[in-house]
Amino acid sequence: MTLNRSFWQGRQVFLTGHTGFKGSWLSLWLNALGANVTGFALDPLTRPNLFEQAQVASVVRSIHGDIRDFPRLKNAISECAPDVVIHMAAQSVVRRGYEDPIENYSSNVMGTVHVLEVVRQLKQSCVVVNVTSDKCYENREWLWGYRENEPMGGRDPYSSSKGCAELITTAYQRSFFPPELIAEHGVALASARAGNAIGGGDWTSHQLIPDLMRAFLTGQPCLIRNPSSFRPWQFVLEPLRGYLMLAERLTENGSRFASGWNFGPVDADVKSVSWIADEATRLWGNHASWSLDSAVHPEEARALKLDASKADAYLHWRPVLPLQRALTWIVEWYRAFQGGADLRQFTLKQIERYEALAQNGC
User: Fold this and answer.
1) Count of CB atoms situated within 10 Å of the CB of 99
2) Once rounded to an integer, what is the mean pLDDT over residues 69-82?
3) Is the CB of residue 146 less than 8 Å from the CB of residue 306?
4) Which one, of 61, 53, 129, 49, lies nearest residue 89 by Cα?
5) Which residues pair with 39 in a beta bridge?
6) Is the CB of residue 25 less than 8 Å from the CB of residue 238?
7) Which of 10, 19, 96, 286 has the highest Cβ tally under 10 A?
């Protein structure tokens, strides 16, 4: 259920996308575990952002770079000589994929090719976790969760780019890094598909929790696009723990664990957008409110759920922070921001609290 802390002591980790929301949380956690982290990413896309608020640059070797810049990426990975590569850099917003498809595909498709090609060319033994998305699956609006062997797909640019990233991972694995020959090539490659990660410090545009928190902080009602849509919501540290546990297993037995993995919440935490908005409104208080955004918006999936049975059975990973409690932690984080708290220490304290929950298995 929990991490092997001794595994990460002194481990060389190359993390793309470390300036993003999830990347900032993961950078802080890896540093707390004793890893030596080299981060490679563009500057944060929002102001404010967790990377600066939590002073993440002070605990990682931070390299400004674009994963579409192959020579710079190759040089950075070569200098790091990583034991573990976690690829998280991406264009991560469905709506932005509609607005700029070229950026979307060049980042999410060719960016993935570049990371894997660097690993191939350098011929250094390591494990690689390629983080994609729950939206990589061909969404048929099913009521049950998608399993790892379901077809890849995507009806919008973002979703299809993540499906492409999964196909690229499979192609590189079969062509260059076959699990049964890991003793020869030394690379254990897996992909991780996670549900909607939510937590403090997310300021991304057109995302539910950031939109709600921005509105509440300014005393304005929040406009909600698709209140009846269902998503696999989970606290940000849940999938991050899955990525780290997967990296540990890949190091121990790459031939067994080099495949695709879902990290999603229990069925009870697959909730509608309106449920999240109502609960966040109640927790915030102070006359917080939301209303329906009646404007026309690009199409998004209405129902999406992951089946994480494989991660439970083989990695012994399962969620430990129920959604309702996660929302409480999130509101506490943004209240701390509002009150001028030390956000690095506050974020680290939530990581400690979460680790204690994982240790106890509840």
Assistant:
1) 12
2) 98
3) yes
4) 129
5) 15, 62
6) no
7) 19
CA 137, 142, 144: angle at the middle one, nearest 5?
A: 95
Q: Could you give the CA distance from residue 333 to residue 192 in angstroms, rounded to a whole number?
A: 27
Banded model confidence at residue 94, pLDDT cuts 50, 70, 90:
confident
Q: Which of 31, 25, 36, 19 is nearest to 89 (CA)?
A: 19
- Paired tokens of 101: 């498809």
Predicted pLDDT at 298: 65
Picking from 194, 128, 132, the residue whose alpha carbon sits closest to that of residue 163 is 132
What digits encode the pLDDT tens for the residues 143-182?
A: 788 999 999 998 899 999 999 999 999 999 999 999 999 9
Distances from the Cα of 84 to the Cα of 95, 126, 129, 214, 308, angstroms: 31, 6, 8, 35, 23
Paired residues of 36 in beta bridges = 12
Task: Look over the chain and give the mean of its residue pLDDT values, rounded to a whole number.
Answer: 94
Q: Which of 239, 225, 201 is closest to 290 using CA atoms?
A: 225
Q: Using CA atoms, how far apart are residues 224 and 288, in angstroms rounded to an integer?
A: 13
343 in Cβ contact with 337 (< 8 Å): yes
Q: What is the pTM of this model?
A: 0.96
